Amino acid sequence: MVVPVGELEVPGEPPLPTGVPASQIQGRNPWYLAWLRLRRNKVALVCGAVFVLIVLFCLAAPLWAEHVAHTGPNENHITEKVVIDGQPTNVVAPDGTPIGPGLHGQYLLGADQNGRDVMVRLMYGGRTSIYIGLAAAAVTTVLSVIVALLAGYYRGWIDSVLSRIMDVIWAFPVLLLGIALGTALAIGGLKIGPLAIAGDSIWIPIMIIGFVYVPYMARPIRGEILALREKEFIEAAVAQGKGPLRIMFSELLPNIISTIIVFFTLNIANNMLLESALSFLGAGVRPPNASWGTMIADGYEMIYTAPHLTIVPGLMIIATVLSLNVFGDGLRDALDPRAKIRLEH
Amino acid sequence: MNTLRKVVAIVCITPLAAFGVAACGSDKGGGGGGGGGGGDINVALTSFPDYIDPQLSYTLEGWEVLWNVYTPLLTYKHAKGKEGTQVVPALAEKMPDISPDGKTYKLKLRQNMKYSDGTPIKASDFAYGIQRLFKTDSGGSVFFNGIVGAKDYADGKANTISGIKTDDNTGDITIELAEANGTFENVLGLMFAAPVPPSTPLDKDATNNPPPSSGPFMISKVEAPRTLTMERNPNFKTVKDAGADEVVDASVDKITVTENKNNSAQVTDIEQNKVDFMVDPPASDRLQEVKTRYGNRFRMEDSINTYFFWMNTQKPPFNDLKVRQAINYAVDPEALNRIFGGRMHPTQQVLPPGMPGYSEYKLFPGPDMNKAKQLIAEANPADRNITVWTNDEPDRKRIGEYYHDLLTQLGFNATLKVIAGDVYFTTIGNESTPDLDTGFGDWFQDFPHPDDFFRPLLHGDSILPTNSNNWSRVNIPANNAKQDELLTKLIGDGGVEQQYADLDKAYMEQAVWAPYGNERFTTFLSERMDFDKSYHHLLFNQDYSSFAIK
Amino acid sequence: MARFIVRRLLGMIAVLFAISVIVFLIFNVIPNSDPAARIAGKNADPALIARVSADLGLDQPLPVQYLTMMKQIFTGQLMSYAKDRNVVQQIWDGVPATFSLCIGAAVIWMALAVLFGYMSAIHAGKFTDRALTILSLVGISMPVFWLAAILLYFLTFKIQLFPTGSYVPLTENPVGWASHLILPWFTLAVLFVGFYSRMLRSNMLDAMNEDYVRTARAKGLSERQVRIRHVLRNSMIPIVTLFGLDFGQVVGGGAILTETVYNLNGVGLYAGEAIRSLDLPPLIGVTLFGAFFIVLFNTIVDFAYAVLDPRIRLGEAAPA
């Protein structure tokens, strides 16, 4: 059989060979095709690189802290003086105004009201924020996939129960739920059986954020599973005698991997935004630890005299989230050029 | 008069005419007319008063608003500084006659006085007010527990308080205490003890329909928690005519008090003369600007409060005196002052300036990190895990972060716990809360008597299972006895103030706290206000009767 | 059809019930949230605390407390612990500000989304498209409270273009009402414009390849008529349904940050205060209020889907 021209082409893909017997056409791995498509999307690649750069920047925090700034992220230097341009200057002036940004190794971005080095905090804060974003995305993904697989495969009453639970979580105003849980758990910590998490552990915000977004991911994936379930290859697998778990993990799961990847990437971005909102309201990362959200909250009190304290962490969040969003978009275009995946955000 | 109109005109034109900014400081009657100035002013605050009810209100904002609305039998002199801490007669003819054993107080109500709605003020109204304290479960009721029969009344076992006897014909009021109590006159001067007519609900909060007033202002409108309006009390002259000289008349016709959560917006409003007075101090990042550019209508004011770090003296490592002394050496009041934007007066005493019994000295000259580290090395505590507590209000949070870092520098393994402001004190005051090692503390006076500080904060009996204010869990029998002994005397008695000062030193020698500052408040007025006339009272904050338009 | 409605209504009630129970439990599990200790004041003795506790009914078993609270909500008598104010009244007072904010923002975001999406789609691949896409993406990457703070700083302080915060009721002063709300509207809208405009763009691009468009062109309609009458209209359907869901979320509690930063006395601000003071009655009140709107709009959207797509009414598998 000869492959007719125009029928199976997708815009932007390498052209299919024509006039050649089908048996001689080399098949192409869908992942390889996706990678080719992604490679063509320069903007997405740049953004992906930007994200990696930001991560590296934050990982370099201890190096900067030790060799350039000579201070940790939580060390206060309120009444100390630092030498700028040969002049000893107050890190925090007697009226409470901290030193501003400038080209000096120490306090490159100035100090905050507790006399802490903002650049050092920015880098350590980034580590915290990005870590929370990634970990929470992992939590959401794992939970969502489990819920979606169970609900989509079994349907019936399991689906009803799980969907109702998803409805309840969905109906709970996201911020209120996050703050309520954050405040509740911060004081006493969390104890489920043998698992005990301290109130100020970073895992509290991670669990909360991860939990809150489960319905957003679980529903679309469930939809896909429901559609996939009707396909013949599932019928074949059942006829072959494969058990439900095997079907879920070896038949259904591989087909939704690309959806999961896209959602995961976009979810990191949402998580970072939610973390910053929770921290801003005091229900996320606990003081004195830095995260970009707590830095915005701290800076907000000084916004009229030292606006950079608020602006800079915000710009970091925007840069990170934007690069993730663009890259995630590019991933979606690459993995699914017919735009079957619709993210319910 | 004319000056006022010009100022008003300019104020209304300058701002954002393009967007038609509303509310131009509603101002009718531009000055002139009969006595006491006049005009309408507006006041902004971040936190609306908790209750518009004299028996229930227990916050700075509430007391500030209600002082010139509800007049008790006694009041505090309307003067700034230490003079204002003096208790003087108000609705009573003179200071009470106290029996030699200190247990019986006799007062006489002035004659022919009326509330703002025309009802006559009767002696039995005082008893009714005290009954309301108990029936509404007011926080202020604890100050009156010492009255004979109060407990039985509170528990419902009696219909009246047997220890209060009143005669409406003569105006005589007799109060029996179970024991002599030198703070009782102070407590009689608080609005908790203000007479209210029996039409006021006995066991319900009256905020939405406040009782008629006995002061220069009356509350004419309440829209809690956004705004309230106070206007001149037409029947106040009955109080003045009855001879109550120490109660001061109003100098403006109307005050509108409005809540605005945004402190910075308030500062801008005062700078632009859209608002006349802000109750809260300007936020630290606007303070410098206000001080330099508007210095002619801005002033720092003293207030009676102490900020300190409490240390649990019953648990390691703070059960070791050396460790507590080390903290006192290490804490730098100047650093904390800078966190506060320059509004903290440094201290190492329990009592604040302005409180009788205050004397300044430094037992722990410093800050001296080296001495602190040396003391810690000597003490060598085995338990280096410390939980540091603070609440989430911006300044408190930063103070907590400073303290946490300080302890880390001293070699401890410190964990910071930040608790929501509204539940902070009940959390640290609850003995079932684990890991109560040390943390932020502050105390604002209820009345200017040293017992108000020592008893709840440092007396052994104040170590309670809940709502304890003795966060350092201090129990020094000799000092407890001294407090009890001094309570039976009057502050004016010879030597009592000095003994309180000695008690202060005795506690600090034991380093029960690490005090570092007294917060100062501010007066910031719009241009049209008479800046010199308006003053800040040490107990009731800004005296609204001192507001006047130039 | 009637069965469908009844089923959905029952579902709504079940969800609201579950939420109220969850909030109630969360706050009874927190240590030191006992309101009696707080209300009794800083100097309280145990006797006073016990009286307060009895008066508030806090010494009753939890299920009884829950039922009492629910009854009080529905009779409009629920009082907050902290300041003894009527919760339902407070929520009602906050509704004008919240609705003004949300509806205004929604109008702006939909208008801009349609405009941007349309422009992006018809100039796909060119500079306009790229610029608008980047703009949209930046918008959805911003923390909303950060944007609010920045706008406040630059446009009310550095350059005094707009008045600072606070809500002015519409009935009091329409111009003031609008001028105080412009920045909040814009702030809230920025979050959604990006997402919606890009969705419209991709829907329109898909639609432009459909057969019915080719037919319309063949019929002789101008390109403009084709775009607006056929492509745009058909692309809007999924957008409108998603809008329903998002609007419900925004009214339900998404506005909390915007209201806090701009100091608008809406339900969101009240919710924030309730959480800060760990005050259970207002908390249940605002959560139910929020959840009600979210579920309401969910139901409306589902209902619209059912009207448009008979398969759902008849209970077949839901489309992805």
Question: How would you characterize the overall build of this protein?
Answer:
The complex is a heterotrimer of chains A (345), B (550) and C (320). By secondary structure, chain A is mainly alpha-helical. Helix content of chain A is 62%, strand content 4%. Chain A has 12 helices and 4 strands; from the N terminus they run αααββαααββαααααα. In chain A, strands 1-2 form a two-stranded antiparallel sheet. A two-stranded antiparallel ribbon of chain A has the order 3-4. In chain A, helix 1 crosses helix 12 (308-335), helix 4 (118-154) crosses helix 11 (292-300) and helix 5 runs antiparallel to helix 8 (214-229). Chain A is flat. The two termini of chain A are 44 Å apart. Mean pLDDT of chain A is 83; it is low at 1-9 and 341-345. In chain B, the strands form 6 sheets. In chain B, strands 14-18-13-17-15-16 form a 6-stranded mixed beta sheet. Chain B has a 5-stranded mixed beta sheet with strand order 8-9-10-1-11, with helices on one face. Chain B has a 4-stranded antiparallel beta sheet with strand order 4-5-7-6, with helices on one face. The N and C termini of chain B lie close together (9 Å). Chain B is globular. By secondary structure, chain B is of the alpha+beta class. In chain B, helix 9 packs antiparallel against helix 11, helix 14 runs antiparallel to helix 15 (477-487) and helix 15 runs antiparallel to helix 16 (496-509). Chain C has 2 domains: 2-87, no CATH class; 88-308, MetI-like fold (Orthogonal Bundle). Chain C is 77% helix and 0% strand. Chain C has 14 helices and no strands. Chain C has helices at 2-29, 35-39, 46-55, 62-74, 87-122, 127-140, 144-158, 174-208, 211-219, 223-254, 256-262, 267-276, 280-308, 310-313. The longest helix of chain C is centred in the N-terminal third of the chain and has 36 residues, at 87-122. The radius of gyration of chain C is 24 Å and the shape is globular. Chains in contact: A-B, A-C, B-C. Chains A and C meet through helix 5, helix 6, helix 8, helix 10 and helix 11 of A and helix 1, helix 6, helix 7, helix 8 and helix 10 of C.
Please outline the helices and strands.
The complex is a heterotrimer of chains A (345), B (550) and C (320).
Chain A: H1 30-40, H2 42-59, H3 61-69, E1 81-84, E2 87-90, H4 118-154, H5 156-171, H6 174-188, E3 190-192, E4 195-197, H7 203-212, H8 214-229, H9 232-240, H10 244-280, H11 292-300, H12 308-335
Antiparallel strand pairs in A: 1-2, 3-4
Chain B: H1 2-13, E1 40-45, H2 60-66, E2 74-76, E3 87-89, E4 97-98, E5 104-108, H3 123-135, H4 150-154, E6 164-167, E7 172-176, H5 184-188, E8 217-223, E9 227-232, H6 236-241, E10 254-259, H7 263-271, E11 277-278, H8 284-293, E12 298-301, E13 305-311, H9 321-330, H10 333-339, E14 344-346, H11 369-379, E15 385-391, H12 394-409, E16 413-419, H13 421-428, E17 438-444, H14 451-458, H15 477-487, H16 496-509, E18 513-519, E19 521-524, E20 536-537, E21 541-542
Parallel strand pairs in B: 1-10, 1-11, 15-16, 15-17
Antiparallel strand pairs in B: 2-3, 4-5, 5-7, 6-7, 8-9, 9-10, 12-19, 13-17, 13-18, 14-18, 20-21
Helix pairs in contact in B: 9-11, 14-15, 15-16
Chain C: H1 2-29, H2 35-39, H3 46-55, H4 62-74, H5 87-122, H6 127-140, H7 144-158, H8 174-208, H9 211-219, H10 223-254, H11 256-262, H12 267-276, H13 280-308, H14 310-313
